[in-house]
Amino acid sequence: MHKRKVTGWLAATIVATIFCFSSTEGARADDFNYRVTRFESVGTPNFVDDFGDGDIAPWLLNLGTVTDEADGALHLKSPGSEISPFPGLNLNRSEARLPAPLFYKADAWTVTSEWVIDPDTELYEGISFAMDIVGGSTILAVGVLNYAPTEAAILGVQPGLVAFVAHTDSGFSNLALTSTSITPAQFTGNVLMEFDHPAGGDINVRISLDGGVTFIDFGSFSLVAPGDITMFLYADPLVGAEEPTPTPEPTCPTPQPTPVPDSEVCYKTKDLRNPKFERMDVSLSNFLHSQIGDLKKPSEICIPSSANGGSINQPGATKCCYKMKGASLPLPMNFETIGVVAGTVQVNVGKPLKFCEPCTVGLIP
Q1: pTM for this one?
Q2: Which of 58, 224, 263 is nearest to 139 (CA)?
Q3: Which residue in 66, 33, 45 sits closest to 229, CA to CA?
Q4: H or E stretch including 299?
Q5: pLDDT tens digits for 27-39?
Q6: CATH architecture under which domain 2-235 falls
Q7: Domain residue spans in the chain?
Q8: Whether 77 contacts 236, CB under 8 Å
């Protein structure tokens, strides 16, 4: 097995690279459909979800598209929500969440998710699917992915098709990954992903590629979870991944310069109630965490502005901001920020305060 600890990936600077691709035709991972036919918990709690009743409950949609269909499977499929959990790694994620409270560290439980995988069409370069849990300061995932060397190096796993475990008890910046190389020929039955948790103990993790005849045993991992534990199922192929069929002539678009973000001045706003702003929930995801934000009311308009005589690159890139109540980070995080005007500052990141989105503005006579 290959082990790697990923540190320092919460970088302040992202380097963009322009590639020239050959024209291709093939099955794009942007059009994906991964099927989970069974989720079972033995112990406390004790239940089975065989799916197929047309309702994803008790699961909740966390990201992308999740459906419960008549073929007896929970489908994690396109369109997904585009996320970038690591700089340079852009994913299309569809994710289901089993809401808490159900699982606790003090209880004994074994959970198994069963996946139907076609090795001829669903294991090509760029794919990833997994089961994971989040509880307290612990994040633990087990699954399958297939990355080229560039993307594999970002994540810290072996390139090619692998079974993997990702684990941390102290925040994303200390994420440790263990992987083992596998081949499509080993997929001779349904894929079983298993977390086995004795009461109050560590979690034993294993995966089977042949319907449970044999298992790849990753060993045990610590669980720091003073409260409840949330289960997730997800599929998140790389954006634009595909099985390529190259044609002889390359097609190279003319590179376009990326606009430089502007400084902004934000102005406090008040809802004129014409019409009244309706409070709403929005599903949000970034490299810190995923959450459901409760948008309460308009709070600010932020307008691109010249700072100390500088230019304005995108004068129409106005943002509208709303006061938001959201989930706190699982662990405190510190950042070093480098501003064009304010320079270098070290800060502690706390709870979310507002949600901002691109918008158009027009003066009311």
Answers
A1: 0.61
A2: 224
A3: 45
A4: strand 290-305
A5: 344 689 999 999 9
A6: Sandwich (2.60)
A7: 2-235, 263-358
A8: no
